[in-house]
Amino acid sequence: MPLDEQESFVSAALQKQVKATSKKSLAALKEEQKAIDAQIDILIQGDARLSELFGWITSVPGVGPATATEILVSTNEMKAITSAKKMACHAGVAPFEYRSGTSIRGRTRVSHQARKRLKSLFHLGAMSAIRRKGELQDYYQRKVAEGKNKMLVLNAVRNKIIHRIYAAVERGEKYEKNYIPKLA
Hints:
It is built from 8 helices and 4 strands; from the N terminus they run H-H-H-H-H-E-E-E-E-H-H-H. It is mainly alpha-helical.
C-alpha cells in the first residue's frame, strides 16, 4: 500500500493522521461505487433489450457483470461493433503481422492502440476461465504443454471469449458448452 511506503520518512503522528483520512475517503468512494453499480443494475434490468444482451454476454465462462457492462457501453449495445473480429481489434486482442511490403519481420503482435479497460477485463476473464475446469482450461494447458508462450495462449483464450460472446448474441440465446446447431 503506498501509504505504508512513506512511513520511513514521515513522522508517526502524521502517518497515523494520513491513514485515518485515507480510510474515510476510501470508504466514501466504495459507497459511491456501490450506489453507481446499483444504478447500472437498475438501468440494465429496466430495459428489456439491455437485460437480454446482458444475460447472453454473462453466460459465457469468464465474463462477469463488469465485463458485460463495459462491452455494452463500448459497443453501443452491440450496434457499433457488430463482429467478433472487430471487437478483438478494438480490445487489442487480435494479433497482427509486422510487415513492410513483402517482408515479414518478427512475430505477430497485438496493437497497443486498444481500449485498455476492455483489454484488461478480457484478460481477467481469461485468467478466470483457465482456472475453472472446462475446455478453455484444457486448451490453455494443452498449448502450454506444446511449448507455446503463456501470454500468447492467454491472448488466444481472450479471443475465444470474444468470439463466444458474439456467437451467443448472434444466436440470441445463452452460451451453451455443448451447442448443437439447428438444421434448416
